[in-house]
Task: structure prediction
Amino acid sequence: MTDGGAETRTLVLLRHAKAEQSGAGPDVERRLTARGHADAAAAGVWLARRVLPPDVVICSAARRTRQTWHDVALGLAGCPPEGGPAGTAPVVRYAAAAYEAHPDDLLDLVRTVEPEARTVLLVAHNPGISLLSALLDPERADREGLRTTDLVVHRVATPWAALTPGDAPIVDRHTARG
Result:
């Protein structure tokens, strides 16, 4: 894609799907609920229909985010783009630093993406993921933040390494429900 001659990139932010309530075990090990699995697969179908398969996925290492990505991938694979086969598998990075991350920390993770990647999917947690969306587009960000399985699509006109606050307008958003 080009925008006035400049290459554009797409950053998709995804808050993990609905997880079990906190229990006796560590928070990082919480699993998705049945609804969470269905919603995450629906998020993958939505991405496929919007022709937004990621080249790179940055995913928190928490169990619920890994499960969310797995189900998104199943939804993507089950709904290839019209007129063609499914795309290639993305590079997936499980990042412990994305768990309980501040928005600046998440932005730093995005800045490490290879310059040739056109679409990046970041799967993380609140409040960091919501605050990152607001940092990238303060005017269009949802003031209430992202709900479970909310997707926010930001358009990026700079290289990943040069991404700065206010640099990525929101062009689409969706709450996936299965």
Summary: The first strand starts at residue 2 and ends at 3. Strands lie at 2-3, 6-7, 9-15, 56-60, 91-95, 119-124, 150-156, 170-175. Residues 1-5 have pLDDT under 50 and may be disordered. DSSP finds four helices and eight strands in the chain.
